[in-house]
Design a protein that fits this description.
The complex is a heterodimer of chains A (254) and B (243). Helices cover 78% and strands 0% of the residues of chain A. Chain A has 254 residues and is mainly alpha-helical. Chain A folds into two domains: 34 residues; 216 residues, MetI-like fold, CATH 1.10.3720. The chains are: A mainly alpha (254), B mainly alpha (243). The interface between A and B is large, with 53 and 52 residues.
């Protein structure tokens, strides 16, 4: 059944790549502006062993990933406990919520000027921007998860004399785990995006920087290689977190 | 909320606990607001003009994205052959975040408005398409069959059954689209522009002017909130039966 439409899929790919190649080969568009698909693949291959903008593409990706992981971990480590605590202590909720709502509408990328001013352009600045992108989904999903925990479970724990700390870690955390993991996936996607934005503007290494250098040298093949690398890493991150999501769901017998 | 403002004032203005070179005091922000609000303004022009330029670009890209993404999603939802035709290419392009298109857009279109409209369009196009497609695919088969039994033409089934039923999903997509467009536009303006709210931020950053950075960020947030609110109103107006 699924394969019935396969000819159409193949046709779609052929038309896309064919149109691209034809346009590039026709000479109507400057080859610097639109390289052919083959040239992009060749460039990608050569970037893995030849240095561009100071490093090979793997080294650029590695430095991007380090920043990404730092910002993402920070967002998870702060956002999840804060979200759970806000779900449990009403007063904290009333204090933090309005502030959070006000800050949330600031696009992560708008933090660039302050990030540079406070932490410089090395590792601190980009990490703040990734944090700004990844933090809200962590907090919101932990909070929602905690708010929708079955009242009976909380009451049972309270009756048995559980402390606030034990309720948060032994009742709310496990019960809201699916929601939290779903939030992590969203925040990883947003964090990865914000990282690219940050690197386009402030950094001197990393995959975004590679693309900016390609852009200013009018080397479109480099820019497109960078886009491909970003897309592939984005997929890998998403697949990893999706399997975590499935693992959590399976662990809970769902 | 009041506590925070009071704390802000005392740590910056009154005690200089936090250096005003790093984080602005309320007075600094007020000064920045006055400076940019009155001619000749800041970073080339007044705030009103920056805001209008940014809003024009974001709405332009967003509308083009609706005009392309929603019909394409509708087509993909209705016809599996069309879906099979488009999907592989779409799936290959989708994981590339809109911000990653900025360098390519600059090479293709330069630093003018075309490049910005292009990236804003792309940012909004993906969620608009996906959610329209999902909306069409999740329409209750029974409703479609019922309309068919009563002799409705294919066109009428689409117009009177499929589209209204898919509309909630479409609007979910548009809300995501709008957020993505706004973020992307600000990023594109940070990378290179002659005016616009992102341009204000980058000029303020180069001048190390924390008051203006803060004020610019506040406007980014405010405009984002206003547009989201406006879309919410439109959503309720477009679907009166959900009230």
């Amino acid at each position: 059944m699924r394969y019935r439409y396969l000819p159409y899929s193949i046709a779609g790919i052929v038309v896309f790549i064919g149109a691209w190649s034809l346009l590039a080969a026709s000479g109507k568009v400057n080859a610097l502006i639109l390289p052919s698909p083959l040239e992009v693949i060749r460039m990608f291959a050569s970037l893995t062993h030849e240095k561009f903008a100071g490093y090979t593409i793997q080294a650029h990706l590695a430095s991007s990933l380090v920043r990404f992981l730092a910002g993402f971990m920070l967002a998870a480590v702060i956002g999840i406990p804060l979200g759970l605590a806000m779900g449990w202590f009403r007063r904290l909720d009333y204090v933090v919520s309005p502030l959070f709502e006000a800050v949330r509408f600031v696009a992560p990328i708008a933090w660039v000027p302050f990030a540079v001013l406070w932490f410089g352009t090395g590792i601190g600045g980009p990490v703040l921007i990734i944090f700004a992108g990844a933090f809200p989904p962590c907090l919101i999903n932990a909070y929602r998860g905690a708010r929708f925990v079955d009242r009976h479970m909380i009451e049972a724990a309270l009756t048995l004399g559980a402390s606030d700390r034990r309720i948060i870690f032994d009742v709310l955390l496990p019960a809201s785990l699916p929601s939290i993991v779903a939030g992590l996936r969203i925040s990883a996607g947003l964090g990865w995006q914000s990282l690219i934005g940050a690197e386009l503007i402030v950094v001197s290494a990393g995959i975004g920087y590679l693309m900016v250098q390609g852009q200013s040298n009018l080397n479109t093949a480099v820019v497109m290689s960078g886009m491909a690398a970003i897309g592939i890493v984005g997929i890998v991150i998403d697949v990893a977190l999706r399997s975590l999501e499935h693992a959590v769901a399976r662990g809970r017998g769902m | 909320m009041l506590c925070v403002v009071a704390l802000w004032f005392t740590t910056t203005q009154a005690t200089h606990l936090i250096s005003t070179g790093r984080f602005p005091s309320p007075v600094d922000v007020y000064k920045a607001a006055v400076q940019i609000g009155t001619p000749p303004g800041y970073a080339g022009t007044t705030l009103a003009h920056h805001v209008i330029i940014s809003l024009e670009l974001v709405l332009c890209g967003f509308l083009v994205a609706i005009a392309t993404g929603v019909p394409l999603g509708l087509g993909m939802g209705l016809d599996p052959r069309f879906e099979a035709f488009i999907n592989p290419v779409f799936l290959a392009i989708r994981p590339i975040p809109p911000l990653a298109w900025i360098p390519l857009a600059v090479v293709w279109f330069g630093l003018g408005i075309q490049a910005k409209i292009f990236v804003v369009w792309f940012a909004a196009f993906v969620p608009a398409l996906i959610n329209t497609y999902t909306g069409v695919r999740t329409v209750d088969r029974t409703l479609v069959d019922a309309a068919r039994v009563h002799g409705a033409s294919r066109y009428r089934v689409i117009r009177d059954v499929v589209i209204p039923a898919a509309l909630p999903h479409v609007f979910t997509g548009l809300r995501l689209s709008l957020q993505a467009s706004w973020t992307t536009l600000v990023a594109a303006e940070l990378v290179g522009a002659v005016a616009g709210i992102g341009h204000v931020l980058i000029v303020a950053s180069i001048d190390i002017y924390p008051g203006m950075i803060f004020y610019g960020m506040a406007w980014v947030a405010l405009l984002g909130a206003v547009m989201t609110f406006g879309l919410g109103r439109l959503e309720r107006a477009a679907m009166p039966w959900l009230r």
